[in-house]
Amino acid sequence: MLLEVVDPPALLVSPASRFCGEVLAAAELKLNDRPMVDRQRGGSEQAWQCFESFIGGRGESYRSAMSSPVTAYEACSRLSPYLAFGNISVKQVFQRVCMMQLAIKNSEAPRGTFTQWRASLKSFQSRLRWHCHFIQKMEDQPDIDTVNIARSYDGIRGEDAAKLEAWQDGKTGYPLIDACMRALRATGWLNFRMRAMVMSFASYHLWIDWRASGLVLARYFVDYEPGIHWSQVQMQSGTTGINSVRVYSPIKQVTDQDPDGTFIRKWVPELANVPSAYLAEPHTMPVMEQTFAGCRIGDDYPEPIVNHTEAYRLARDKIHSIRKSNDARIEATAVYRKHGSRRKKR
């Protein structure tokens, strides 16, 4: 039976609701007010301006500069919030990058002129593919924000409100962790390596359940994309069953990513005058050095919340004791069939 085609209405009237035009304040939503002083501005125009500045110059050092928080704020594309909110699409970005690659290929510039650009654009394209790959994981398993991808790891971690609070407030006694968490609260953004590090620290060193720490980060990130976020949270927590277990050293990462303490001193001003030799582990400063630096450990800056060496060993042993079990191996095979990369190995 065919139904009569109804003409479209001349006018759609919005329901009488305060949500139609009024933006609720954080307090009205029962959320803590966390002003982000350096948050990126939204909108399609800003998205394209950001993108053009990236391919117009900022992105040349992308491959080599994306891991350090000192250089990443400038060298990374910073497009993630705009992709998350739909101000610009992955397709638009990918096609524009392909056009640039083609222009470089056809360029008559002297050999070596675009070597760095070629490497950076290739790396950037791979991240665009990862973007879609990780979103697909949540499409395939919508509960990855609440359930371990590999159920062999159920119940291994618990809650610790005090440690969670110290971590989210940037008061763990590990300078790079604290600098990253404070920077995140102010800007809503961190580069990938630092995101992985702070999540790894919460899951392994503090042994906090990833659902609690992951929610903290989700509320801070202005580029929160559920599929990407929760996939990465579980990867950095060792609960996928198939990804490498990576326990980042918050001490070594200072040497690798912020050797001069530029980022740390900016976001953890208590440590501004601490000598570089002690910046990764300020609690090892002699009392005299603490006095000269104006930073008394335990008063001006906290003692380490956990012992790195002990926490690392305990976390590694716990994860690997599960990982090598027969049940976990069988489950990992099933997880890989469902979530593993389909890209052929070269």
UniProtKB/TrEMBL annotation:
Belongs to the DNA photolyase family. FAD binds at residues 62, 124. One of its GO terms (molecular function) is FAD binding. Its cofactor is FAD. InterPro entries: Crypto/Photolyase_FAD-like_sf, Cryptochr/Photolyase_FAD-bd, Cryptochrome/DNA_photolyase_1, DNA_photolyase_1_CS_C. Binds 1 FAD per subunit. It holds the Pfam family FAD_binding_7. GO terms for biological process: nucleobase-containing compound metabolic process; response to light stimulus; response to stress. Keywords: Chromophore, FAD, Flavoprotein. This is Cryptochrome/DNA photolyase FAD-binding domain-containing protein. It comes from the Bacteria. Residues 124-319 form the Cryptochrome/DNA photolyase FAD-binding domain.
